[in-house]
């Protein structure tokens, strides 16, 4: 009998998991994307795009599609979807695992200020006297920083912000990771960056800026991950695959 598995996607881990599972016989693999990106890369298997309509919508979807297991592989900062998934899966009795890459941790030489929201990050920039700040927070989270008129910003995003908040002085850099150490060093040096603001996304694609900052003694304002519901965790695609096999009671063919 075919078992249906739902992957809540939007991360490289979700694509990798779909790649591994889609070729397995007797398994229907559905990845769900939020629909924030125009023309997203489509994962292996089937894809659905757009919100479910909150917890009730997800409950209906799980029932209608006869989903046997759910992997929440959304981004560490996409917590609303994680809470909805936990509540919907519990109410329908569908097993759920959270696939999440480990967070970055500061090393001894690091100069991190860890904050829980952007308000605290703005306050940290104001008290820290930073003048040239590398903002790597994502295109939808720029607005809280636009009022800092004494700071010049280097803003790196994958796609252009729309609308672009009104910054007094900035340069917009469109680039998609992964970023290597040499280019991150050059970026910080060329723009004479004295502080970085970013989210604790974890993973290797965007971690080299932290190494370059450490080498230079540059301050990092690091937004910590939001609180998550208490569900089983897989720290890698391999661990998620093991969970799927255990949960569906089957081994790799
Ligand atoms: N936040 C980030 O920094 C970040 C970075 C990289 C990628 N992403 C990806 O972008 C997507 C949206 O992020 P977000 O921070 O806006 O999420 P969020 O705050 O957790 O979710 C907001 C709403 O968007 C819908 N949604 C989110 N992920 C979905 C998915 N995979 N499939 C279907 N609907 C989804 C849900 O709508 P309904 O309530 O209507 O179901 C959810 O309630 C996520 O899938 C995430 O993996 C986010």
UniProtKB/TrEMBL annotation:
The keyword Oxidoreductase applies. Pathway: Cofactor biosynthesis; adenosylcobalamin biosynthesis. InterPro entries: Precorrin-6x_reduct. One of its GO terms (molecular function) is precorrin-6A reductase activity. It comes from the Bacteria. Its EC number is 1.3.1.106. PROSITE patterns: COBK_CBIJ. GO terms for biological process: cobalamin biosynthetic process. It holds the Pfam family CbiJ. Keywords: Cobalamin biosynthesis, Oxidoreductase. It is an enzyme of class 1 (oxidoreductase). PANTHER family: COBALT-PRECORRIN-6A REDUCTASE. This is Cobalt-precorrin-6A reductase. The lineage of its organism: Bacteria, Pseudomonadati, Pseudomonadota, Gammaproteobacteria, Chromatiales.
């Amino acid at each position: 009998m075919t078992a249906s598995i739902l992957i809540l996607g939007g991360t490289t881990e979700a694509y990798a998991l779909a790649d591994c599972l889609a070729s397995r016989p007797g398994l229907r693999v559905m990845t769900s994307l939020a629909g924030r990106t125009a023309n997203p890369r489509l994962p292996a298997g089937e894809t659905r795009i757009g919100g479910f309509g909150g917890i009730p919508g997800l409950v209906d979807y799980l029932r209608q599609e006869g989903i046997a297991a759910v992997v929440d592989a959304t981004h560490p900062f996409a917590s609303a979807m994680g809470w909805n998934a936990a509540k919907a899966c519990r109410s329908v009795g569908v097993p759920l695992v959270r696939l999440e890459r480990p967070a970055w941790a500061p090393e001894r030489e690091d100069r991190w200020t860890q904050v829980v929201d952007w308000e605290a990050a703005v306050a940290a920039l104001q008290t820290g006297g930073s003048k040239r700040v590398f903002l790597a927070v994502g295109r939808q989270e720029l607005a809280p920083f636009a009022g800092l008129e004494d700071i010049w910003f280097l803003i790196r995003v994958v796609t252009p912000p729309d609308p672009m908040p009104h910054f007094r002085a900035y340069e917009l850099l469109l680039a998609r990771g992964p970023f290597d150490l040499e280019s991150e060093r050059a970026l910080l040096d060329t723009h004479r960056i004295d502080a970085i603001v970013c989210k604790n996304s974890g993973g290797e694609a965007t971690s080299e800026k932290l190494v370059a900052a450490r080498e230079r003694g540059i301050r990092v304002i690091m937004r910590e991950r939001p609180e998550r519901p208490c569900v089983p965790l897989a720290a890698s695609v391999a661990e998620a695959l093991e969970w799927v096999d255990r949960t569906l009671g089957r081994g790799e063919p």
